[in-house]
């Protein structure tokens, strides 16, 4: 329980750190870094249609 | 982000534009997800109004997380209009993950469930489309923010509604982080009273 709360607190700290970074830097700079996360997540996924729908509860 | 530039330049009208949920400009490098959203909505908007909601709203505003889908609400449309939309999506190599026949897809939508469209031979990213099903969905459709991404434009929900929905209905750590990011990015631009008003309406429907 304590670990979860601490972890959540740390995650929120990073949200604050990152949003400050977004506001203080040029859109091209932060988005280039953000896109590494977004594009990698999409590229590495090899799920089938059936597996994906099952994961999403049929929808 | 342009929001800060508006402040620095003292561009009150631009600030008001943002606060009223009218328009925001993000000069971002487009991700695969952004390009997918732009391609899909370029077709969708020819046939109906739409509004993008949930996680993608915070992502387009810079939140550092991935998502495999984009949620979009459209008003209830008739089958004839849906068929035209479907045919054009098909021509552009989109397909529906949930069902093959347009009649079946339309039935899914009409039964208040959503359907997902992806590009042929892929599953993600996908666009989760649903008809407006209650007062909140209607309100979301009628209160939108234009996000300009270079030459492209996307219609997303009022930030106030997104914050309210994530803080009072969804409440998962991921959603609370999304809400916090939007609050941080739009600090000084959104209407806190409106968030509370939306939360009251949401509680009536979802509690």
Explain what this protein looks like in three dimensions.
- The complex is a heterodimer of chains A (59) and B (207).
- By secondary structure, chain A is an all-alpha fold.
- Chain A has helices at 2-24, 27-43, 49-55.
- The longest helix of chain A has 23 residues, at 2-24.
- Chain B has 207 residues and is an alpha/beta fold.
- In chain B, 52% of the residues lie in helices and 18% in strands.
- Chain B has a five-stranded mixed sheet, with helices on both faces. In chain B, strands 1-7-8 form a three-stranded mixed sheet.
- In chain B, strand 7 and strand 8 (152-157) form a beta hairpin.
- Classes of the chains: A mainly alpha (59), B alpha/beta (207).
- At the A-B interface, helix 1, helix 2 and helix 3 of A face helix 9 of B.
Largest interface: A-B, 35 and 36 residues
What oligomeric state do the depicted chains represent? heterodimer
Q: Largest sheet of chain B, described in full?
A: 5 strands, mixed
Strand order within the widest sheet of chain B? 2-3-6-5-4
The beta-strand count of chain B equals: 8
Main sheet attributes: strand count, strand direction, barrel closure of chain A = none
What is the arithmetic mean of pLDDT of chain A?
89
Instruction: Report the radius of gyration of chain B as a whole number of Å.
Output: 17 Å
Helix count from the secondary structure assignment of chain B: 10
Number of helices of chain A: 3
How much strand of chain A? Answer: under 5%
Estimated structural class of chain B: alpha/beta
Shape, principal axes of CA atoms of chain A? flat
Unreliable parts of chain B: 4-17
The count of strands of chain A amounts to: 0
Instruction: Determine Rg of chain A (CA atoms, Å).
Output: 17 Å
Q: Low-confidence spans of chain A: pLDDT under 50, at least 5 residues? A: none
């Amino acid at each position: 329980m304590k670990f979860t709360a601490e972890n959540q607190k740390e995650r929120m700290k990073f949200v604050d750190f990152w949003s400050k970074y977004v506001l203080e830097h040029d859109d091209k700079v932060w988005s280039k870094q953000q896109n590494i996360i977004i594009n990698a997540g999409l590229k590495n996924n090899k799920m089938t249609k059936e597996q994906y729908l099952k994961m999403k509860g049929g929808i | 982000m342009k929001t800060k530039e508006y402040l620095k330049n003292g561009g009150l009208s631009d600030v008001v534009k943002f606060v009223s949920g009218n328009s925001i400009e993000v000069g971002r490098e487009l991700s695969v997800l952004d390009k997918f959203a732009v391609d899909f909505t370029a077709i969708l908007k020819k046939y109906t109004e739409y509004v993008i909601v949930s996680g993608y709203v915070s992502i387009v505003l810079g939140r550092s997380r991935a998502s495999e889908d984009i949620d979009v609400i459209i008003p209830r449309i008739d089958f004839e209009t849906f068929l035209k939309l479907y045919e054009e999506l098909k021509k552009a190599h989109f397909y529906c993950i949930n069902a093959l026949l347009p009649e079946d897809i339309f039935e899914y939508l009409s039964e208040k469930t959503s359907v997902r469209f992806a590009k042929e031979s892929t599953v993600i990213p996908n666009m989760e489309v649903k008809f407006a099903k209650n007062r909140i969905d209607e309100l979301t459709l009628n209160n939108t923010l234009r996000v300009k991404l270079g030459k492209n434009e996307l219609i997303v929900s009022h930030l106030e509604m997104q914050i309210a929905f994530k803080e009072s209905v969804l409440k998962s750590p991921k959603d609370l982080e999304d809400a916090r990011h939007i609050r941080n990015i739009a600090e000084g631009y959104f209407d806190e009273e409106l968030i509370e008003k939306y939360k009251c309406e949401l509680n009536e429907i979802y509690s």
